[in-house]
Each structure stands twice: as C-alpha cells, then as structure tokens.
Design goal:
The complex is a heterodimer of chains A (136) and B (884). With 136 residues, chain A is an alpha+beta fold. Chain A has helices at 3-25, 32-41, 131-135; strands at residues 47-53, 70-76, 81-86, 99-106, 110-119. The longest helix of chain A is centred in the N-terminal third of the chain and has 23 residues, at 3-25. By secondary structure, chain B is of the alpha+beta class. In chain B, strands 7, 8, 9, 10, 11 and 12 form a six-stranded antiparallel β-sheet that branches. In chain B, strands 16, 17, 18, 19, 20 and 21 form a six-stranded antiparallel β-sheet that branches. In chain B, strands 3, 6, 13, 14 and 25 form a five-stranded antiparallel β-sheet that branches. The chains are: A alpha+beta (136), B alpha+beta (884). Chains A and B meet through helix 1, strand 4, strand 5 and helix 3 of A and helix 18, helix 20, strand 4 and strand 12 of B.
C-alpha cells in the first residue's frame, strides 16, 4: 500500500470517529424527570432542558444577600415543575423571556443550571411603536 | 423591463405628505437596472467564452460598467436615506435613529440583511472590475461565472411579490407598507393619516451592540473575504468548462491567498469586537455564526495548499478542483445558516428571517449543480444532465401546485427523501466525473517530498473542518430528519479541536523544510537541527514562564512554539536573500503566535472576582463533577461592590466610585467607574468604566471595559446593578411635631432626626420654608432639606418631601404653626410625617477576568496578515514576469 493511501484511510477513520463521538456525546433535549434519571447514571454530564419560566412563582435574586444565587421555577414540556438554581447573577432579560434552555445537572429537589440560554420574543424585534419619541 | 419597473411596491398611494418617494423609486430602479445589467454582462461574457468575439466582449464590458455604476448608486441612495433620516423607508426607520453619529450610519448597512447583501454585491462588482483588467484570457469565462453569483445575490434585493412567491427583499420598502398597522395609531386620528411622518420623527435605532468601531470595519472585511471565495471557484469551473488543465492555478492561488488572508482578518476582527463589546468574556465562543465564517476559511486554506502542490508538481488536480469548489459551496452554506433563521435557539446572534431561505437553498444547490455540469467532460452529457435537473425541478414545482391537499403531507415527505437521494447521487456523479477527468498518471510521490507533507496537512485541516461542520449543522440535521439533538457547547469543540490542531501545527512547522519531489535526509537534518533545538529550549522556558499545566496544553504549546520557531528560522536559513518569498513563513509564524496566545489566554484565564460568600448549597458539585460535601462555593464568579467600599479581589483591591449617565446619543447608557489598585504594587492602579444600557427593546445590555497591559488584560463587566432591584415602598408612617433644635425618632426607632434650622427661600410661585434636618441611622448621618411652599396664587400649602434611600428615610411637612409671632424667637412648630424602609445602597455586581498574554492573539493576527500581503505581492510580480 502506498503511504498516501494509508494516510487517507487513517484520516478518514479519524473523521468518522470524530463525527460518531460528536453525535454520541451530543445530548438530546430532555425533561426534568429524564434529567433526574440520567443524572444517577452519569453524574458528570450536563443535560439540556427546554422549558418555560413559571412567572406566577417568585424569581428570587437578592444581590446583597448573595450576588451569585438565582432561584426560579421552570415548567418543562411535560408540564412538570422544578426549582432551578443558577449560581450567577440574574440574566438581565429573564422576566421577559418566553422559553429558555437550561443546561445543567439535576440535584434532587432542584436543578443546578450552569448555563441559561434565553430568547425573549422582543429581542432584536421592533418595538411596535417607539412611544417616547413618537408623541413629541 | 417596463413591467418590472411598474410592479415596484413603492409607487402606490401618493397621498402622503413630505415623503421622498422619488428617492426610493430611484434606488429601486437602480436595483432593477443593476440586476438586468448582470444578466446581460453574464450572457455576453458567456457567449464570448464560447465563441471569442470582440463585439460580444465589448458589450459584456459595457454592461459590467453599467452594473457597477448602478450598484454604487444603490449603495449611495441607501446611505442618503439613512443620512437624511427618511423614516418613510422601513430600512432607515428600523436600523437607524436621529442620534446616531455618521460613522455608525455605516454600521446600519450590515444590521439588516438587505444591506449585507448589497455590500456583498458591491465587493463582487469591484472584484469583477479588477478581473476585467487583469484576468487576460480568463476574463470572459470567469466573469460570466461571477455574474451567476451576482444574479443570485442581486435577486435577494429585488423585492418582488407575486402571490405567495417572494423574490428578494428590497431595502427601499416603505414603512407604511411593511408596517401598515402603524397608520392606525390613535394620534394619527387628530393630525390625519397623510401626515404620519410628523409622528415618525425618529427611527428605531441601531442595535447597541453594533455601535462599536470594530463593527464599522469587521463586516466589510468579512464580506470581502466571502466575496473573494467566488474567484478561485470561478477559475476552477471555467477551467473544467474550457477543458484547461493547469493554467488556471496560478491566478486561483493569488485570489485564494487574498481570500484566506482577508477572511481570516475579518474573523479575528469579529472576535475582537466580541471581546470588546459583549460580556461573555472572550473572543471566540464557537457560536454557530462564528463557525459559519470559519468553515469557508478552513477549506479555503486547505484548497490553497493543494493549489500550491498542483502548480509545482502537477499532482492532485482533482483535490485542488474539489476543495476550491467546495470552498464556495460552504460560503453559500454559511450564508444559508446565518440568514435563514434555522439556527434560531442555537446562537446569540440573531437574524430576522426574511422568508428567503428557499431562495438561499436554491442558490446553494444551483452552484453545486453548476459544478456537477462542468465536471462532465463530454458536452452532450453536460446538456443531458442539465436538462434532467431542469425537468426534475419543474416537475417538483408543478406537482406541488396540483397535488390534492389530502396527500400533500406524504407527498412533501416523499419529495424530501427523493431530494436527499438525488443530492447524494449528484454528488457521487460529480466526484466520479471530476476524478476521471483530473486524475494523473504520475509515479508516487516520494515520502520525503514537500507535496506529500503539505497534502497530509491539508487533509488534517479537512478533518478539523468535518468536526466543526457536523457540529454546527446539528440544527440543520434536526430539521431535516426530525432529530432532537442539543447544540454543542464550546467545550465540545475545544476538547476535539485542541487535538486536531496539533498534527496541522506539526506539518506547518516542518513542511517548508522539505523540497518538492525529493529531499535528502542529510539536508533536512542539517537545516532543521538548530531551529529545532532552539525551539525546544524556548518551549521549556515558555512552559515555565506561562505556568502552563495539563499534558494536552503543554503539548499544544510545544507544537505552537515549534510552528513559530521553525518558520521564523526558515526565513534566515533558507530565504535570506529572497525577502519577497517570505510570505508563507511569516504567515505561519504569525499563526503560531496566535495559537500560543489563544492557548495561554484561555487556559490561564483567571477570574479575579471569585467569591466565597453567600448561600451554601452543600453538597455541591463543581464544573468538573467533583462533589464537595461541605459545599464550598465554587462557581461563584461575581462580586458585589458597594459604592465607596473597597473589596479584595485576587491581586487587586477594587472600589466602585460611582456612576453617571451619558448625555448625547448614549443617553441611555450608565457608566460605572471602578478603580483598581494592585495589592502587590500600589503604584499599579487604574480605573475601568464598564457600562450598561437599559435598552427599551433588548433589556439591559452590558458593555465591558478592559485595561490592556502588554502581558495581560484585566477585563470587567457589570452583571447587575442596584437600580434593577424592585423598589420597596416606604411604610411605618408616623406624625410628629418638630421645633428647631428638637429631636425625633421614626416609628421603629431606627432613624433619629433633628431640626437644625429653617431658612426662607423664594420660589417662582411663592415663598418656601426650607428646613435643615439631620438624619441618623446606625452611625451614618445625612442632611436633608424638606420644604413647604405657600402658593401665592391659591394661598394653599404645598409640600416638597424628601426621600433618602441611602438611610431608608422619608419626610414630608404637612403643616406649620407660628406659635410666637416674634421672628427673633423663631418658635415655629412643624407637623411632619416620616416613613421608613430598608436602607438602599448603591452597588454593582461585577465579574473581573484576567486574560494573560491575550495580546499575542492580536499580534499573531497582524503578522499573519503581513505574511499574506508578502505572498500576494510575490505572486503578482511572478505573473507579471511571465506575461512580460
């Protein structure tokens, strides 16, 4: 076999391996209950949960008490509620968000979020009418 | 053409006052003219390429000039609309505002999709003009193919609506057409709808995050890089079309170098912008939009190296064609990714979906189709294949109209899988034909030849590309096959790319030391011995100096030093008297410096604001999964800074000095001054001014502030501020009577207040009594001045209360009673009401990060770009010598 062909085969193998490992390691979006179950199987892995903020429950963030502690209640796609703790300051548009994706680990009675991806409907969208400048 | 012009959406309803409709109509006419001119110059160039004819070429050139002129006109008119604040045009209203400084008006172009496409078209027309002068015999076929790209891009701006069918989106659409509901706002009832512009006096403004000087130059550079990618593609396709074997390679190399250099610079500028104005704390986050610009760069780099091999040895023509063409496919794919809205949740970037994703996909497949057509050697096969594609496409479009609704869903599914199957077959055909036509019968290359090792390096770049491509495309595959895979996080990329970079770095270091065809071991050893030794020593010193820990990072540093060291040495050992041929070594050296900077600044990135205070969550897990039963507060990376109270950070003492609001166009901004003093060296002190903006559309935005040292950066941003807390109302009200010199206490007894004096003050509507009251809570004292005013017109009393948030105290004067008319005794009794709440202190929550040696990233980039400049100049001169 020619060296070039060997190199081609080795690199192609590495390529396939990298894609397989990527898809093997990629998490799917899960529910809170699945995250509980998966956490006992693999406590080091973080899972993605697409959920909504329960705005009826309080969003607790008191910077003077602990600047790195945010608590809120989220509802997943199966309407299951869970307390979420995030050890960072409150994301600035949290109250305005519709859906959020939280990435983190289940800790029994709460979900410890490492990352919160939030998209609020108004973000980058037009304000229907920019009132202040409109009326003068 | 007349029907096209009359179908313009702008020319309706002339009954509104003060609109500059003519300007929009002019702009739109130029859009249409430039589009038609593109069709014409492409057609004439195409015909000329088939049957060389000087009349055809003359016409082609004339239409190219007309096209370029129209594009510049469109560009100027759109700028005029923004500059003169013509908010009757949606683009100006949506993307600009009165307060915007002129230099940021440029940025409005790339906030909207139409402006971005316009920019791309502009660059393409400049490139076409350069090729018209320099391409020689390649002028006609190459510009004809670039014309196809211009047709695709130009159609994105047409803005034609034909029932459900929408072709492009015009930058000259009217506000009242795009947002008809705005004409229904109540205030227009009184002044008349025709005067709506009296109300729409200001625009929606430019995204705050784009108001940064890097945003003025990063997008044009990036788009120039994107635009340049079409040139090597066009040469490759033209060569297959005209069945030319190798003469296309030299010009393709020149344009590839330009593309790799400029695209690379554009990507890093984007990183610098992110570092300066976003608060994620870094310059690269493996965000899908960043990846989308990286994909074409990686493959173009790989293609460039293959082209170099092909030019020097005649080998690997197949791979050269393949990679050059895929580079442009990936540019289109990247455009589709970022402009179709498919990335949605996956990205912090966001682009409004203009409903043009179908059009973008059509172009992607159109150009893959074009590559496949020219890969057939036989003209008859080319025609048959083109016809088959057209028939299939027409059949799909037609049947989708006549198919009954009951089976529509199944039919769509069927078409989808048929399409995927067909796509795979087309790709297979393309590869087979291209391979057959371009394979060479040369003997195997020598193991000690430069071509072998460069080829290997290119393959490793492709390997890295495959990972980035498949990870970034996860949302696409989710959509296509109904998967529910989550989008990978940055560490998923870092963990793999770290290893993938190492073989590339190794091959980049040694590649040039090999000669084409064959190298003698003894020569190789002689050339490489000393540079290698010195590099190893430098590597040892740097590992110690940078304090790098972790095997994989030390290994990465080793390859980084090798890459810089060997390429630096190469200049002096092999290219001493050939300064112009320094390009490759300089850019490789710069890339090595860049990678070392990336490694050190990210691995040794240090959060200085780590906190041990707060709520204990024992047992708790840290980010590496280690569980701590006592619940040490890891992960706590923010500190609260109360105004005026120094706080110990790692290595620095920080004090929040106070804040102030902006006054001009930045009036929504709040600037926080934080002063830092090094704990080791008190002379080392500086002030940082991070800011926040309470943006009505986007919520609170934070912009970091950074102190740049030569060897490190100290970076900080505000994550939260006291003004964002819910305001607690005053309560525990109490009535009291006060005389001068007398003391009182609030209802809970926490605040003590003394009336120190009274003075008369004249106000515009009467005479006021101004009290001087000292308030004390714990050990803090403040003076306040509540007033009571006797209104001259009404004769009534008006109170001017004072609320003192800092001490949580409130006082208002209800009435007063002069008990002794003799003013010298000043015996006046004031009935005051007091209230209390928890004292509010001004504070900010900040994160402070130290990035060691981050300057190496920028420094390496600059060197790299200089290297590319050398390489281009060298090759242009070489071409001139050949032609002379």
């Amino acid at each position: 076999m020619k060296p070039l062909q060997i190199a081609l085969i080795v690199i192609a193998g590495l390529g396939v391996a990298s894609v397989v490992s990527l898809y093997g390691n990629t998490t799917k979006y899960v529910s809170f209950q699945e995250a509980d179950k998966l956490h006992t199987e693999n406590p080091n892995k973080s899972y993605h949960i697409a959920c909504k903020l329960n705005k009826a429950k309080p969003i607790v963030y008191d910077a003077q008490k602990d600047a790195n502690h945010l608590e809120f209640t989220a509802v997943d796609s199966l309407n299951f509620e869970k307390k979420v703790i995030f050890l960072q300051p409150k994301p600035q548009d949290l109250e305005r968000t519709e859906t959020i994706v939280i990435i983190g680990k289940s800790q029994g009675d709460y979900f410890l979020a490492e990352t919160i991806l939030s998209k609020c409907p108004s973000k980058y969208e037009d304000a229907p009418v920019k009132q202040a400048s409109l009326v003068n | 053409m007349l029907t096209l012009l009359s179908s313009m959406p702008n020319s309706t309803l002339p009954a509104f006052n003060n609109e500059w409709l003519w300007l929009g109509n002019l702009g739109h006419s130029f859009v249409v003219i430039s589009f038609i001119a593109t069709l014409l110059f492409s057609y004439f160039y195409f015909q000329d390429a088939r049957s060389e004819n000087s009349t055809l070429k003359k016409w082609a050139r004339n239409f190219l000039y007309l096209h370029s002129f129209s594009v510049v006109s469109v560009f100027s008119i759109l700028f005029a609309i923004i500059f003169f604040h013509r908010y009757e045009f949606f683009y100006a209203w949506r993307h600009s505002s009165n307060a915007l400084p002129v230099y940021y008006m440029i940025s409005c172009f790339w906030e909207g999709q139409e402006g971005s496409f316009l920019l791309w078209i502009f660059w393409n027309s400049i490139i076409a003009l350069i090729l018209r002068r320099t391409a020689g015999k390649w002028e006609s076929p190459v510009i004809a193919i670039i014309g196809l790209g211009q047709i695709a891009l130009g159609s994105m701006l047409l803005g034609f609506h034909w029932g459900d069918l929408k072709i492009g989106s015009s930058p000259f659409d009217l506000l009242r057409d795009v947002r008809p509901e705005f004409l229904n706002i109540p205030i227009l009832g009184s002044i008349g709808v025709e005067n709506y512009l009296q109300v729409f006096k200001d625009g929606n403004g430019l995204n705050k995050l784009l108001q940064n000087y890097w945003m003025v130059i990063h997008p044009p550079t990036l788009f120039l890089g994107f635009a340049l990618a079409i040139v090597p593609f066009a040469y490759s396709v033209a060569a297959l079309w005209k069945r030319e074997s190798r003469s296309w390679i030299h010009p393709a190399i020149i344009w590839s170098i330009a593309c790799v250099g400029i695209l690379g610079a554009g990507i890093i500028m984007g990183g610098f912008w992110a570092y300066e104005s976003l608060s994620f704390g870094g310059y690269w986050a493996w965000d899908p939009v960043e990846n989308a610009s990286l994909l074409p760069w990686l493959i173009m780099t790989s293609a460039l190296h293959m082209l170099l091999i092909s030019k020097n040895t005649g080998r690997h023509l197949f791979t050269s064609h393949l990679l050059t063409q895929i580079s442009f496919w990936l540019v289109l794919y990247a455009t589709f990714l970022t402009r179709s809205g498919i990335l949605g949740e996956a990205s912090v970037h966001s682009f409004t979906d203009l409903g043009l994703s179908g059009q973008l996909l059509l172009f992607l497949f159109g150009f893959i189709g074009l590559s496949t057509v020219v890969a057939f050697v036989d003209s008859k096969n080319r025609l048959q294949f083109t016809a088959a594609l057209m028939v299939f496409f027409a059949a799909v479009v037609l049947t989708s109209y006549i198919i009954p609704a009951s089976i529509k869903e199944n039919y769509t599914l069927f078409i989808k899988y048929l399409g995927i199957g067909l796509f795979v077959i087309v790709l297979g055909l393309y590869l087979r034909n291209l391979y057959k036509s371009q394979k060479t019968n040369l003997p195997d290359e020598h193991l000690l030849s430069r071509e072998f090792w460069i080829f290997l390096g290119s393959l490793f770049i492709i390997l890295s590309l495959v990972q980035v491509f498949s990870a970034t495309s996860i949302p696409v595959f989710n959509k296509l096959f109904g998967f529910k895979n989550a989008v990978p996080q940055a560490q998923d990329y870092n963990n793999i790319q770290l290893w993938m970079a190492m073989p590339i770095m190794l091959l980049m270091s040694v590649g040039q030391y090999f000669r084409y065809k064959e190298t003698q071991w003894s020569d190789l050893l002689r050339d490489i011995k000393w540079p290698l030794l010195v590099s190893v020593v430098v590597f040892g010193l740097l590992t110690w100096g940078f304090e790098i820990e972790g095997f994989q990072f030390i290994l990465f540093l080793f390859f980084g030093v090798l890459l810089s060291g060997l390429n630096f040495a190469f200049l002096f050992r092999k290219r001493k008297n050939q300064v112009l041929r320094w390009g490759a070594s300089i850019s490789h050296f710069g890339f090595g410096v860049l990678l070392i900077g990336v490694l050190v600044s990210s691995v040794n990135k240090n959060v200085l604001s780590k906190s041990q205070d707060g709520i204990n969550l024992a047992p708790e897990q840290d980010q590496s999964g280690k569980i701590d039963e006592k619940g040490i507060q890891f992960n706590r990376e923010n500190q609260i800074l109360y105004q005026g109270e120094p706080v110990d950070l790692i290595g620095y003492k920080a004090v929040y000095m106070g804040s102030k609001k902006g006054i001009h166009y930045d009036s929504l901004d709040e600037f926080f001054t934080v002063s830092f003093i090094s704990t080791k060296n008190p002379k080392d002190s500086f002030k940082l001014v991070p800011k926040t903006q309470n943006n009505p559309q986007m919520g609170l935005l934070a912009e970091p502030s950074t102190k740049h040292y030569l060897h490190k950066d100290v970076f900080t941003h505000v994550n939260y501020q006291s003004g964002m807390d819910k305001v607690e109302p005053f309560s525990s009200f109490k009535l009291d009577t006060l005389y001068v010199g007398q003391e009182g206490v609030s209802s809970s007894g926490k605040c003590i207040y003394r009336l120190k004096g009274i003075e008369k003050a004249s106000r515009t509507n009467g005479l006021a009594l101004r009290l001087e009251v000292e308030v004390e809570r714990l050990n803090e004292k403040e003076i306040i001045h509540p007033e009571i005013l006797i209104n001259e017109q009404t004769g009534g009393l008006e109170s001017l209360p004072v609320q003192l948030d800092k001490l949580g105290f409130f006082m208002t004067i209800n009435s007063f009673d002069i008990q002794d008319p003799d003013p010298s005794k000043q015996k006046i009794a004031f009935v005051v009401q007091t209230g209390e709440k928890t004292p509010v202190k001004n504070y900010i929550v900040v994160k402070v990060i130290e990035f060691p040696w981050i300057n190496l990233v920028w420094f390496g980039t600059i060197i790299m770009v200089i290297g590319f400049a050398f390489a281009i100049i060298d090759r242009i001169l070489a071409q001139k010598r050949v032609m002379a």
